[in-house]
Amino acid sequence: MTSDSCYDRELASGVGVVGHKEAKVEKAAEKISSKRWRVLVVDDCETTTRLIADELSEKGFEILRTTNVDAATKLLLSKKTRPDLVLLDVVMPKIDGVQFCRFIKSNEMFTGIKVVLCSSLEEKDLKIMVKNSGADGYVTKKDVLGRAVMEQLGANQSD
After folding, report:
1. How high is the pLDDT of residue 17?
2. Distances from the Cα of 88 to the Cα of 1, 78, 103, 129, angstroms
3. Residues of the chain below pLDDT 50
4. Same-domain pairing of 22 and 53
């Protein structure tokens, strides 16, 4: 009994319909993993933005950085520089990170942009700020910058 259906030919060749779906999923995953995610680092301390940017660049992210909310807003408004994620300092002059996060999250133009608060404040305070601002999460500067310091110390020990 022979059949000319596409399904039967695929089964006979050892490539099932599921194989096609898996191949499509793999190709989609390759596209996603090959995308270079853009991160905007906003912190009023230039040294902090540089350290964070260096670490994220090494991990393959495209980095934009600025020390003020006005410049960050300009980067957000341009489709060419619009980030996938904003890593945002909480304590900044003029407009703090919580206020700026609320601005981003309340604006339809920025739908889909993740915002992660970054601060040296206590974690319990950061959790409250995340909840009140609509941020997608938080990271402590101790965790981020501590990692950078440890990497530097490790590099110096091997010299």
Report:
1. 37
2. 66, 18, 12, 12
3. 1-32, 158-159
4. no
Pair 55, 3 in one domain? no
Can you read off the two tokens belonging to residue 154?
Answer: 């490790």
Q: Are 127 and 139 in contact (CB under 8 A)?
A: no
Query: Taking a C-beta distance cutoff of 8 angstroms, is the pair 87, 40 a contact?
Result: yes
- The model's pLDDT over 23-64, given as tens digits with 9 standing for 90+, comes to 444 444 444 456 789 999 999 999 999 989 988 998 999 999
Nearest to 87 by CA among 114, 68, 112: 114
| Cβ 107 vs Cβ 72: under 8 Å | no
- Whole domain around residue 64: which residue ranges? 36-157
Does this model's pTM top 0.85? My answer is: no
What distance lies between CA 112 and its chain's CA centroid?
11
Judge if 117 and 40 occupy the same domain.
Answer: yes
- Count of domains for the chain: 2
Q: Is residue 10 located within the same domain as residue 61?
A: no
Residues 101 and 31 occupy one common structural domain: no
Token pair listed for 51: 């350290």
Do 138 and 61 lie in one domain? The reply is yes
The torsion angles phi and psi of 121, rounded to 5 degrees, stand at: -65, 165
